[in-house]
Amino acid sequence: MKSRRKFIKSSLLGLTALTFPNMIKVHANQDYDVVIIGAGAAGLAATEELIKSGKKVICLEASNRIGGRALTDNQIFGEPYDLGALWLDNGNTNPFKLFGEKNSNFNLYKERSEEMYALYSGQKRISNDGEIWKVFDGIEAGIAKSRKDISPSEVVPYQDHRWFDTMHMIIGAWEMGKDFTNYSCKDFNYDYEIPESAPWHCKEGFGSLVVDMFKNIPVQLNTKVSKIDWSGSGVKVLTDKGEIKANKCILTVSTGVLASDQIKFTPNLPTEKQESFSKISMGHYNRLTFKFKKLFKKKAKDTYLYYRVDSQNAKSPEGLGITINPSESKLCMCDPGGDFGKELLKSGEQASLDFGMSELRKIFGNKIDKDLIKSHAVDWSSNPLFLGAWASAEPGAFEYRKILRSSVGDRIYFAGEATSKEWGTVAGAHNSGVLVANKVINI
Ligand SMILES: Cc1cc2nc3c(=O)[nH]c(=O)nc-3n(C[C@H](O)[C@H](O)[C@H](O)COP(=O)(O)OP(=O)(O)OC[C@H]3O[C@@H](n4cnc5c(N)ncnc54)[C@H](O)[C@@H]3O)c2cc1C
Description:
With 443 residues, this protein is an alpha/beta fold. It has helices at residues 4-9, 41-52, 95-100, 130-145, 164-176, 185-189, 206-213, 255-259, 271-279, 338-346, 349-364, 368-371, 400-405, 426-441; strands at residues 31-37, 57-60, 72-73, 81-82, 108-110, 117-121, 124-126, 200-202, 225-229, 235-239, 242-251, 264-266, 280-282, 287-292, 303-307, 321-324, 331-335, 372-378, 391-393, 412-414.
């Protein structure tokens, strides 16, 4: 997700109807080579890789679907609607893009690089206010120049500028899911593979693409892991459906889930390892989506709407990152992030949607009310299976990335977006799953 800044600068397939041909049942006392925990992009890729190598594996997923934070719904608005991941980064190497373009069920296209912004100050459309980009570039350069493991709030310029709150919201909450006090400049700059190209879009939804790519991978759904006992030579994984014994396990749940203690370890994991779960902490990025009769009909697909946010230098600016007509859907996605986005969704779906509408009214006036057809809010922050959107290092915690990636006792392995060099992305999660599966295979 973070990579959106790179290109800015240079310029359910039936959620409820999933079927899995090879559904596994949990058999207590049955032995496996590897248990994979979580069926998001990382867990699915790891499972596939291990199956290919002939390992006996089981992939356990707490929810009733695969895909994790990549989720397309087709019912709510009667058309593909991504509740989570939307942009496909790194088109040249992204495994989902490479799969999708060879598959006639999916239409993929690269994002155009021009005229992709609509800029507003109040109700006034600004054709191009050089000041906005000056502030944007200045803040980015400030973070890039800082080689330190400190927060952007300590280094970024223009903190009194009238466009500061907007750019704080964009370079903070919208790109990182975090405000300027909550992430490390070093983490933002290093240890990250720079995308090769502008992002790609999948008209049928990124979530649908993930599900389709892994539709033949066996997954044990509705099976929540609560404990991992690694006191013996292998692991005993306790679930709400029984206990599973295996030689090794791969955990792909978010760092939010790991830090929440929902999965207990016997014996305890080393202290540093435990600390890494909360030091590489989850950012918050939620979604309020609106469908209008007429509004935005004439806007080009995948337009980003930037408007002046005035939060008087608040620690967490109160604004939204807005995407209009993603893949010509006529939807308007308003994404609140950072601490503000987390708290907003806690106030409930209706209150969150009311805030979204009030921000849109500031730009388009009250006339939009009668034009509204339907709206929907999704709260990833409160969902116990995720507890946030994607992870990044807290200021001063950059070194914990390595610790998070390391295995414990040669039998507990960690994959998932937060462990990847392309963290915060679906492709990164996938690649981490393949990498860790190969480590396990080669031991
Ligand atoms: C709103 C939003 C927008 C985003 N936008 C983009 C984007 O545009 N582009 C992009 O590339 N990325 C984006 N991301 C990030 C991307 O979605 C994630 O990086 C990626 O999907 C994470 O995959 P994963 O396999 O690491 O984890 P997950 O997808 O979280 O998979 C982990 C799985 O573990 C399961 N689980 C949790 N607890 C347990 C348990 N106790 N037992 C068993 N199973 C459990 C969960 O249900 C989940 O299915 C976005 C994320 C969000 C939330």
